[in-house]
Amino acid sequence: MPPPSNDKDTEADLTPEEVLGDVDTKMNRSLDAFKRDLNQLRTGRATPSLVENVPVDYFGTPTPLKQIASIAAPDARAIIVTPWDKGAVREIEKGLLKSELGLNPSNDGNIITVPVPPLTNDRRQDMVKLLKRKIEDGKISLRNVRRDGLESLRKLEKDKSISQDENRRAQDQLQKMTDGHTKQIDDTGSAKEAEILQV
């Protein structure tokens, strides 16, 4: 027979280390999502990652392009998309046209060719603006994870599971963790901006 449970919910059973471990995992996930998102920002070069997550209406379900086609970039100026289901050619073309990438795909009934022209100066500036938005979104995501971590730590202190000092120490570590992940977002963003502005 299981021991009687006390009324404290399971969060109170966590240690500060477990809270911080959970925060670290979630921040790493946010960082990975941010990096994937940046791969879709257009630079002057054709790369499969530019279009692989473009949503395509596939039988009424928005589906990432990479799940319904093979994608290759034979050179720096074009991407070739080969749908596994020839019936999806039109929808893939529509998805590419609707994306924020400013691409102009064409198809021969079987494969879709996506020319990637060099970026104009205006288009580069648009891409940098979009990049700045994505950087801010990435930081907001980190701040939300930090806020949840803080709430968990405060609750542990309130429930007398940890002392005020332990809470303060854990909060310091939490801030260091947040700063470290924020710096990674800034560094990744700066590298991407340099790539976009490179003529």
Q: Considering DSSP H and I runs of 4 or more, what fraction of the residues is helical? A: 40-55%
- Beta percentage is 5-15%
SSE series: HEEEEHEEHH
Rg over alpha carbons = 23 Å
Largest sheet: 4 strands, antiparallel
Task: Provide the structure class.
Answer: alpha+beta
The CATH superfamily title of the largest domain: Ribosome-recycling factor
Name of the CATH first level of the largest domain: Mainly Alpha
CATH topology of the largest domain: Topoisomerase I, Chain A, domain 4
State the end-to-end distance: 71 Å
Question: What can be said about this structure in brief?
Answer:
The chain is built from four helices and six strands.
Describe the protein in words.
- There is one protein chain.
- By secondary structure, the chain is of the alpha+beta class.
- It folds into two domains: 106 residues, Orthogonal Bundle (Topoisomerase I, Chain A, domain 4); 68 residues, Gyrase A, domain 2 (2-Layer Sandwich), CATH 3.30.1360.40.
- It has four helices and six strands, in the order H-E-E-E-E-H-E-E-H-H.
- Helix 1 packs antiparallel against helix 3, helix 1 packs parallel to helix 4 and helix 3 runs antiparallel to helix 4.
- The longest helix has 38 residues.
- The N terminus is likely disordered.
Q: Tags for this entry?
A:
Gyrase A, domain 2, elongated, 199 residues, 2 domains, 4 helices, single chain, four-stranded antiparallel β-sheet, two-stranded antiparallel ribbon, Topoisomerase I, Chain A, domain 4, alpha+beta
